[in-house]
Amino acid sequence: MNLSPLRILVHGASGRMGRALLRLASERSDLVLVAAATRAGAPLPEAPGLPVLATAALDAAPVFDLAIDFSLPEAFDGILGLCRRRGVGLVSGTTGLSEGQFEAFNALAEVQPVLWSANFSVGVAVLRALVQRAAAAVPGWDADVVESHHVHKKDAPSGTALLLGAAVAEGRGRAPHYASLRAGDIVGEHLVQLTGPGERLELVHRATSRDIFARGALEAAARVARLGPGRHDFGALLLGEPRA
User: Fold this and answer.
1) Does the annotation count 154 as an active-site position?
2) Residue 240 pLDDT > 90, yes or no?
3) Residue 129 near residue 140, CB atoms below 8 Å
C-alpha cells in the first residue's frame, strides 16, 4: 500500500478559500502542498516558501497528484487542461461554470477521478439529504430557497442554493423559488422553506467560519484521489452512499 502523502496543487490560492486551504493543509499528514497558483504568481503569507505560479504559467508546476480549484470561471479551463495533460484528478468548488465547462469536466471524469461541489460543508451535505426527503413528503407545498452571503460574492443564486434547489426538485418534481441577499461579511446562510396551509417547515444551515469548507475540500481531495475515474459526489463520500 502506498502511504506517501498526496501531493496537492491549490489553484486560486489568493482567494478566501485558497488561503484557508493553504493555512489548514498542514493539519493533515496525508497531504502535502507542492505548489499554488494565482493570477499574479506572488508569494503568499499563508504558505511561506511554497512555489506560487502565475495562472498563465501552469505548465511549470512541479509534479502533483491532484489539484484543488477554488478560482473563477474564466480561470477554470486552465487548471482543467493542466490536469488532463498531467493525467491527475481535480477537486473543484468554483461556481458559475458554464454548461460547456461542466461538459469538459465530465470528459475528464472519464479518465480521472474528479469532484465538483458548490459546498464542502459536512452540514450542507446532511441538509441536502434532509431537504430531498422533506420535499418528497409534502409535494404540494410551496418551496423557497433563501441564501445570504457577503457583499463580494458574485454569483446569485449561490451554488449551494442551486444544490439545495436540486434536492427540492428531486423530492417533489418541481424547482423552488430562489431569493439572494448580499450583506456585510456573511460567510454563508441557506434556508429551505416549505410552506403549506397554516404551517411552515424551515431547514437552515449557517456557516460562521470559512474553515469548514476548506477542511471539507481537503478531506474530499484525500478520498477522491484514491478512487477510480468518475465524477464523484461529496455527500456520497461523506455519508457512505453508493453513488457517484
Assistant:
1) no
2) no
3) no
